Automatic annotation (TrEMBL):
UniProt signal peptide: none
Protein's name in the database: Replication protein A 70 kDa DNA-binding subunit B/D first OB fold domain-containing protein
Naturally occurring in which organism (per UniProt): Paspalum notatum var. saurae
CDD domains documented for this protein: RPA1_DBD_A_like (cd04480), RPA1_DBD_B_like (cd04481)
Replication protein A 70 kDa DNA-binding subunit B/D first OB fold domain residues: 14-83
Length: 354
């Protein structure tokens, strides 16, 4: 549930917006006009199961869609809202994740909001800036990284910049994964060169929520990069998920439980000097900004065992300079998730709404 006040948070309320989810998990956008808000808002709470009557159903708006549904609901002064007395299990979250690699195609598009998942690798301080109208506002930048190493910055403005639990994220991030889903964002382009995600009034975040399968899957996914060589040159080869388990013989979760953060499991160190015949494909996502290509392993064709150690000729990898932000440890596989409160947790328990 969120308030829409236009481009400035200090403007008058234009409408109160909701995302409703039915028992099957199908979401729909709902809107309450200002004249009905005083009568209805007290009956609405994120996570609360309700029964509504006397609502109108209309075609969904052509732009700024929070969910994929051809219809929307409008609540009015005649709408009746009752709490549901029965104990019913409803889905807690709804989102449609957009991969980082296709985000550029949404630059300046406003047909729908974008939802993303990534590991938080950096958080800036909240700083005062001025918008295009010359009004002061607070802004904070979050750096996100996907499983392929792609990075995108997310700009939080106004209340979002100050409400984001930066200290908790930075504290947890020194020893643990910080995996977050951000919903309700738009893709922007600054001065025709800097691509970034921008918060909207519909933006919410879910950080290290253990009951969200997408976050657990992201955290547990195997990714083992190796620098391999034939004696003349070296390139990066990456083993993902099942291929990683096939190579190591154990799951990532098992290794996390058996070894400390600073330990290299012997199952991995023993692979140094091993010779393999592999079937690979070029990893376009990781190779696009590099001088040398990176390859994803599709099949381990043959193992030849331990070979004499050959000097490694490391490829040159271009790394973009860090912006002025506090960086979190992110080069290691880290242990289990530690929960961090969601946005406005004191008033919102997102059981039913985005």
């Amino acid at each position: 549930m969120w308030e829409f006040r236009g481009p400035n948070e200090e403007n008058d309320l234009r409408h109160l917006d909701l995302i409703l989810i039915d028992q099957k998990g199908d979401p729909i956008y709902a809107e309450i006009l200002p004249n009905a808000v005083p009568d209805l808002k007290s009956f609405l709470e994120e996570g609360k199961i309700i029964i509504m009557s006397k609502v109108t159903v209309e075609r969904a708006k052509p732009g700024y869609r929070a969910v994929e549904n051809p219809y929307m609901i409008k609540l009015n002064t005649r709408t009746c809202i009752f709490p549901c007395a029965e104990t019913i299990n409803f889905p807690k979250y709804t989102f449609s994740l957009t991969p980082f690699e296709i985000l550029p195609q949404y630059i300046r598009r406003t047909d729908r909001f974008l939802d993303v998942i990534g590991k938080i690798t950096g958080v800036s301080n909240a700083a005062k800036v001025y918008n295009t109208s010359g009004d002061p506002m607070m802004r904070r930048v979050i750096r996100l990284q996907d499983l392929m190493g792609n990075v995108i910055e997310l700009s939080l403005s106004g209340k979002g910049a100050t409400e984001f639990p930066a200290e908790a994220v930075l504290d947890v991030g020194q020893k643990h994964h910080v995996i977050a889903i951000f919903v309700g964002t738009l893709m922007k382009l600054y001065r025709d060169e800097h691509r970034f995600l921008s918060e909207t009034s519909a933006c919410r975040w879910y950080i290290n929520e253990n009951d969200i399968p997408a976050i657990k899957t992201f955290q547990k996914r195997y990714k083992i990069p190796f620098i391999t060589t034939d004696g003349t040159y070296s390139l990066e080869f990456i083993f993902f998920e099942k291929k990683g388990v096939e190579l190591i013989g154990k799951t990532a979760e098992t290794l996390h439980k058996q070894y400390d953060l600073n330990q290299i499991p012997p199952q991995i160190s023993e692979l140094i000097g091993q010779k393999f015949s592999l079937v690979v494909t070029v990893s376009t996502k990781r190779s696009i900004n590099r001088k040398d290509s990176s390859f994803e392993v599709l099949m381990i064709k043959e193992r030849f065992g331990k070979q004499p150690i050959i000097p490694v000729f490391r490829p040159e990898i271009t790394i973009a300079p860090d912006s002025e932000s506090t960086t979190i440890s992110h080069e290691k596989d880290l242990p289990a998730l530690i929960a961090i409160p969601s946005k406005k947790s004191n008033a919102q328990d997102p059981d039913e709404a985005k």
